Structures are given as structure tokens and as C-alpha cells.
């Protein structure tokens, strides 16, 4: 039995198709990433899986229970951290945690070991009202509250959005620890680099799953040849390379450009020649393996060309 | 006007006993793209609010576009543009209504609004969408439109607070092309981001830790100094030292 199974799931808001025929399943103990920008349907999917929203059609099962018929059973066994801070601002840190434990017929002690690494950092502020916590501490409290009843599946909707890179890294280390405790985690993020920290991912765009697989297999489906290009005048080079007809795409990637070609259409020497003819010096070109972000961009380009 | 468009001298802001911004010093020159990085809670937003004339410094001095941020905050506001991930456009107004509204509050004349709105819609390839409600546009388009409106009055400086958060990877890059175009026209760009690849696109980058600026240089020099391969590594090394709880 899959902790999460979704078959032909659809949801529209008026004319907007928020979810368009989703199919995927999550294996026990996985960290399953829903990767996509704002507006791709991530939160709608989370609301359906957590039984807060009814789909128009299709089936969604959590631990084998139907999100429509068995919603009460699902609510008892999952943990959910919504994208927007939704704890009680007028209650203290400790009161919030106690409330969530009590609602699930548990107490703070029973599963304290699970939240200890996170909650320890909050304990000096246990008497502070949740509304007066900093962003990072609010996030840690929300995670503690979602975990205190030891859920079988933990749903985290964009837990790292707007969070700095160091805190993001720490948050993912916590997720990896929880996953080792046997908790299945479904987590959404707009940051493509976080995909590589998941067991498997679904890449979402405009209500559809472009691809679902392990991060390693997703980048294998990148069909073009990919090169990194470095030069002093990177913005000029970007514009000039875009004009070369054989160049399929060229994007800035930090201090490099990533340039893609269809295999066999043009040689690297020829590209080099064009660049040098245009007056660029100290140009370094290397063949590279694509990242999830390269692959996502290729899929979304193809998606656009297919008129979707 | 001096070449330095933004000046911060011993700029400090305290809230009670808490020093949010602790004696920061820097200068940003005309047309520069200045990346303002830091961990959550490091004091970036407070510093930015002071530079925009929205918050009075406790001590120290700041000047933007030649105007003192404490004494001439209204003149500062008239000479800057601002956009963030959270506040950008009026969703219930149409695209052209937003253009007219922002043009109006930035003091443009009706004929200027008309000519600039044509150019703006042309650059964004959005002519067909002038009559669409902003709420109906994809996020990436909204953010590009919001940026174009934040500079519709050709301000000396534009402040961008996490402008690309949640934006898809292709649009995020198109957004940066708009930033480069603005910088080429002489507009100074002051930008915060949590995407470290975007830090590499800046001419210079400062990194705030616990209210102070711990590093300020070109991305190239920062990487060399810290022996790092990427700005992500530089950021991690500095931000790990932070003592403030967040």
C-alpha cells in the first residue's frame, strides 16, 4: 500500500484548471518532492491530500484511505504544515504545542524524541506568544506542531520559501532525520536545487506533472547536449549566443551560461569560432551534466511549444 | 549629482535594546547592480526601509539620490522605485489601469504615461493583455510588469526585495535581463535575493550577519577571498557565524 496514491486528479477554479489529470504514488519512507513555481498547483494538491478541499474528479488515497469518504481517518494520522503560518498567534509556544498534542489524543512527552532536535532551539522562548516569533522560529514551531502526534505521513507545503540558503539547508537536514524515523514526507518547493535532496520528485507546471522520477533519472531524460560557458562579459555573450541559429537555448547560471545544442547540429569548434569572431576572449566552454533546473526549463520550453 | 547614488555612513537602527542594523557603511554608484544578502533576521529589511525613507535611523547617516534619508525622506521617495514579492500590483485592476495608476502616483503627465505604457507593453510583449485583469496573469508576468512599473518614472534607484521568489526558472532569468537593461540605462539597482545564482549576477554584493555588513565586494573577489567555488559557499561560511536566533 502506498502512503499516497493519486489517480486522474482534477480540480478547477472557474476557468482555471488548477490540477489537470495528476497521477503519482509515494512509497513508504520516501521524501517525495513536488517541485514547481507559484501557481503550478502545489497548494491545491496539498489541500486535497489533507482533506481540506474536494477534487472535481479522480481519486486521492492517503495510507489507503479515500480523501473524500475517509477524511476523518486521514486527519487523525497525518501532519500538515501549510504554506502560510497558521498556528494560534495569541497562544505561547508551549501552549500551541500542547494544544496540537491534545487534539490528537497525545501529550508532549510521548513523541518528544521526534521533535527534540527542533524544539530544543525554541525552548528558551516557550513562554513567548507565537505571533511574536521570528520567521525561522515560527517555522520550527509549526513543524513541531505538525509532528507531535507522530504522523504516518507529513505534508509540508513550501516550508523553505523565503528562507535563506543556510536555514534551508538546516531544514532539509531535519527532514532527512525524520525520514529515517520512518515518516513519509511529501514536501513542495519552488527551489529547483532542493529536488536533489528528495528520494523522488514530481516536476509541476500549470497544474500538470511534467515528469515524476528520481532526481538522477530525471536529469537523464535531458535530450540535448549541454555546455557551460564562462567569459568576462557574460551578459553580452548571452545576447550574442541567442542569435546563433543552432543554439537551442542559452541561460544564465550564476557566473556561467548554460548553452544547449541538439546533438550533431554544430561542433563545439564552430561555436568557439563564432564567439571569438565576435571579439570575446578568455572564453571557457565545458560539456556538463544537466541539473534539475536545466531539465525543468527544457520541459517547460517543450510544453510552451506544444501550445499548452 | 555625485556618482555615489546610495550612501550609508554608520547607519544604525535600534528597537528598544535590540540593534537591528549595527553601524553599516557602504556606497553604491550610478547604474550599479548591488546585491544585498543576509540570513533571515540579519537586518536587511530594516536597512532597506531606512534607505527608502520609511524608517528613521537611530544614528548614522544615509543619502539616496543626493537626498538625506532622515531630513528629506519625501524627496527620497520621489526618486526611487520599489517592488517586492509580496507587494507589487493591484490585482483587481487591469494592466493598463495599473500602468495609469503607478504613472500617476509617480507624477508622470498623461501624455508621458501613454507613451511609456506603449513602450513598456512592447518590451514585455504584453500588448494583447492591456485589458486583462492583473489577477489573471501568470506570476512571472506580474513580476516583470511590477518591475517595469517600479521604474516607469526612471528613478535614480530601484529597490527590489526578493523580486523573484517563487517565479519559474525561465521567467526568473528574463527578469534579470530587465534588471540589466535598467542598469544599462543608468538606474541603480539595489536587490535582495535568496537565490545564490542571482548573487553572481550582481556587480557587487554585501552580506549582512547579525545587523553588520561582514563582507562587501564583487562576487569574483569574495569567492577568491573565501576560497569558495560559488557565492552559495561564501554565504554559507558567513551566515553560519550568525549568533542571532532565527
Task: Describe the model.
The complex is a heterodimer of chains A (308) and B (246). Chain A has 2 domains: 4-219, Rossmann fold; 223-289, Alpha-Beta Plaits (2-Layer Sandwich). Chain A contains 10 helices and 14 strands. Chain A has helices spanning 42-49, 71-77, 93-103, 112-119, 135-147, 165-180, 215-220, 234-242, 268-277, 292-305; strands at 4-13, 16-26, 31-35, 57-62, 65-66, 78-81, 153-156, 184-189, 200-205, 208-213, 225-230, 247-253, 256-261, 284-287. In chain A, the strands form 3 sheets. Chain A has a 6-stranded mixed sheet, sandwiched between helices. Chain A has a 4-stranded antiparallel sheet with strand order 2-1-4-5, with helices on one face. Chain A has a 4-stranded antiparallel sheet with strand order 12-13-11-14, with helices on one face. In chain A, helix 3 packs parallel to helix 5 (135-147) and helix 4 (112-119) runs antiparallel to helix 5. Chain A is elongated, with a radius of gyration of 23 Å. Chain B is an alpha/beta fold and 246 residues long. Chain B has one domain (31-42, 79-239): P-loop containing nucleotide triphosphate hydrolases (Rossmann fold), CATH 3.40.50. In chain B, helix 3 crosses helix 4, helix 5 (139-150) packs parallel to helix 6 and helix 8 (219-226) packs across helix 9. The longest helix of chain B is centred in the C-terminal third of the chain and has 16 residues, at 169-184. Chain B is globular and about 50 Å long. In chain B, 48% of the residues are buried. At the A-B interface, helix 5, helix 6, strand 12 and helix 10 of A face helix 6 and helix 9 of B.
Summarize the structure.
The complex is a heterodimer of chains A (308) and B (246). Chain A has 308 residues and is an alpha/beta fold.
